[in-house]
């Protein structure tokens, strides 16, 4: 039972991360039918930029290690803002370089171009920070909290809380605000949206900024658990992509749900046999997609004949 | 590419291969040549899947693994000869191609990407984790290379061998893709419903493409394992799947020569960049990012763009005189060819077709009319098999076909056109018509792959027939133009030509006059009359009352999913129910005017 | 595109190509040593990059002393990005095109295994300076001349030491294994099982985790349930730190014995200084083990401030020095003679130690169990472990 709780807790934390990134996939897919296949590389500056700024502020080299004392909540919040802003801004570059030339062209060219963008980004990060991982202390310290015998790290709770809060806010934004309505209008019919006075390109760029910023946020949230490094992204982004597809790429709530679902299933399979995790998860995903090709909560697309 | 240039190109390549020893290349260069060949092998098959059938796979490293591990295990564990192991690798590749096709053909778009990624990762994890069988990272050492006359392959032999495999693969794929199979793949990619309407099983076409790509990928894997004498799980990564796809797309997917360009350029670039370790990743990234922007159709697309400029206008005329399907006059006797009983279809609360029953007699032109939203197109989709009915019966020539998939319905002799044109836009008018004749070109897969004379003959006579039909319909001049470039009226007529090419017994036309000008509409009427004379029963949906009343012998009226009247045109014109239905609708001039 | 720029780029290309072509002609007199390792693509890249720094420093030192046999030494560096096909291609290029005298590398054992036959067939000595798989030096041990050498930890050797300690220290003799799913971890698991069998012990549990996993609690819970009081890990520093953090989560602290990787700073950085003290590991050299090591460390860090793994650098350095000594002794770079010289070297001063006849026909490992000791982190520094169990260890306990 303790082991179960333990697995559930870390599964939820990781699932929250998957959900955040998956939500980003949903937002850009809704507007352009594309998303960033190289999103994994966006976690890298997310985890490193803010931390490096803190290090520089503390008078250390940018690739060093922060002490627990230097990682106050204020510092972490500042670092998070810096990471989110920087990665969000990279999202604009991503749109112009890798998305805009291919929107509406059909085919898979955008998949390759976004992968290419990610490769360049990851190797830029490699040149700046080197291949070693950088330990990032949690602003809540490294004490383990015990709940019914299971140990939970404060950072895991922080991840879940922040991620759920961000998802809730975005859910409201997408449903209630002018921006959300404009986004849905663009998703439904870009030409019609343009006719009613929506600046389609601005909305699309904003979508990519949000998507990238979410990846950046995921990067700095997960860094105290995984450490910050050039290599953290690919595995997480692939799972987030899986979460989005299984939950339903066209449904924001489906993407979030998919994230948590994947995180928990992964943790529970790990209880059984850790090395069987990927095999089990991906087989499950294939089965789910055969039964529901557009994901658990995705809109079924019917081609009009 | 013209046959002569192709033959010369092949001869030059073969000569260059034969002369390789004269260049005194060391093993490094031989290895590069070998790698080019291997990448071409894998990409050539993948191109059939990605470029022709339109199924983007991000998991072909899994199939590469199948080949490599089959070659390794067959040789080391089962003690089979290297030659036999190679064959077995292809066989296992085909089996696993089927395995990955089964879930893949059910999904599309990002879900397809996910399924293939999932397959690749599952294979990667299995060969990594299941160390009892696959030895994980420790790998298989001492995989024997094939030998001829007791001489085991050296690197030079490998270059020759892989070169020969590449040429053989190229020739087979060239023959296959130029014929009915290649057209079927392209048809499935461009317009699935239209492909089904000419009798192509989308599932079978996609599955076949998966199997072809699986076999060449597995062969590539097996050859790598044998040449290197060693193979382990580190070779199988997600990156390999991406790389294979990049070779295809960068080279030019959907072009026969795309994989060749991709394999040569990317392999050489990779080898050349190795001396600047820091630079190679950036270059690779920049290549992915910008090259497709500059060359949306890959290198092959850019090259053929140049080539097309000076080759314009050179179109070979047909050597054989063909028979137009319209000329075949075989008037069938009366009798009911199609009997529909209690046909019902609902989408949630909307019921476009509610228990409709009617019969269609052979040899006549029947019209299906009704106000907008009456359920006409849905009814047609039910008849053609594009939509499965909720309940009810459809009997065609006595055969119950309700619930049959569209391609099986089509194969019985029911052809159709579409309200929203579904031409194979990138293909020429001729190819569109040839696709229509798909089920009549009797060429087996093997014959087509090997380019046997029987297959060439069948293809040539089909081309002649298709040209004759196009000429008959006034499209002869434009037979070699891409369908999407034709004027709208001709596109409509081309759809009819495509449907006729399948030599149907019953032809379903969905608003064939929509968007046509009066002259074109008049010509359409003539065409439909000729179709009738050729012995084909016609059921057309049309708003254009002049046309309907002028050419049909029997009219069915649908309103809110129910059949409210049927009979001879003049009787329908007077029917109060029909008048009420139309007056109730927006378009109150429909019965008398010439509304589109 | 601007015509001028095109022309200039073209010009630059021509010049650089010309240089690339003319260099070999000018450089007949150079001695080339190849370096083929992952420097960019996987978690092990930090070892490959650190190794490269040591490799380059050694070549600089050789040239500062006037080269070898009066000839300049040139390092030819290739990055295999952790991919076997690339590694194979690099190996062919280094040997056939660059005509290197010897090769240092790689980082991933799997890559080494993929191309071992190439240097063996072409008679070019290779020194593995990072990859630890036992098979690497063993595959051609029975050939008349085995061209594969190693200046690194050998899994079998360090695991023998760890196992000996675990067997002595365990009260219940309930010993368990936990390792990552990479080839490195799995080879370690296999070796450990064999070694423990020699001790007459069957592990009470064998668990795996992914190399990037951060939560090993479920695996540890199973080992806890099996009553393990000693756990031996096969993983790199990052993952070992995560094992420690998972133990902390569960408040379960069996004796944790880990491999050589734990000597690297990521362990302390990730686990924190307190938790890091809870593992005992096999160590060779550290940056403050000797004046030479300290000097090299200082020099490398000045140039590459974020160098993560000094041990790899030291091993890369020593590998070059052994090759240079062998070239001196052989009087040239002929492969078979070089191989013979390596097997008959005299004393060579390295960073890790002074090598006295490091290799022989039977012995292709420059470092053996005698060069390792058990160590522990204490207040952010690596200190030699000297408890009662270590004192009680005898040569007979080192079963392997």
Automatic annotation (TrEMBL), chain A:
It is a multi-pass membrane protein. Keywords: Amino-acid transport, Cell membrane, Membrane, Transmembrane, Transmembrane helix, Transport. The chain crosses the membrane at residues 6-29, 41-63, 75-98, 110-137, 157-174, 186-210, 216-242, 254-273, 279-299. One of its GO terms (molecular function) is transmembrane transporter activity. GO terms for cellular component: plasma membrane. One of its GO terms (biological process) is amino acid transport. Pfam families: BPD_transp_2. Its main location: membrane. Signal peptide: none annotated. It is found in: Cell membrane. Belongs to the binding-protein-dependent transport system permease family. LivHM subfamily. PANTHER family: AMINO ACID ABC TRANSPORTER PERMEASE PROTEIN, BRANCHED-CHAIN AMINO ACID TRANSPORT SYSTEM PERMEASE PROTEIN LIVH. This is Amino acid/amide ABC transporter membrane protein 1, HAAT family. It comes from Bosea lupini. The lineage of its organism: Bacteria, Pseudomonadati, Pseudomonadota, Alphaproteobacteria, Hyphomicrobiales.
TrEMBL record, chain B:
GO terms for molecular function: ATP binding; ATP hydrolysis activity; L-isoleucine transmembrane transporter activity; L-phenylalanine transmembrane transporter activity; L-valine transmembrane transporter activity. Keywords: ATP-binding, Cell membrane, Membrane, Nucleotide-binding, Transmembrane, Transmembrane helix, Transport. It is a multi-pass membrane protein. InterPro entries: AAA+_ATPase, ABC_AA/LPS_Transport, ABC_transp_permease, ABC_transporter-like_ATP-bd, BCA_ABC_TP_C, LivM-like, P-loop_NTPase. This is Amino acid/amide ABC transporter membrane protein 2, HAAT family /amino acid/amide ABC transporter ATP-binding protein 1, HAAT family. SMART domains: AAA (SM00382). It comes from Bosea lupini. Pfam families: ABC_tran, BCA_ABC_TP_C, BPD_transp_2. The keyword Lyase does not apply. It is found in: Cell membrane.
From TrEMBL, chain C:
This is Amino acid/amide ABC transporter substrate-binding protein, HAAT family. The lineage of its organism: Bacteria, Pseudomonadati, Pseudomonadota, Alphaproteobacteria, Hyphomicrobiales. Belongs to the leucine-binding protein family. The keyword Transmembrane does not apply. Residues 1-27 form the signal peptide. One of its GO terms (biological process) is amino acid transport. The keyword Chaperone does not apply. It comes from the Bacteria. Residues 30-380 form the Leucine-binding protein domain. Keywords: Amino-acid transport, Signal, Transport.
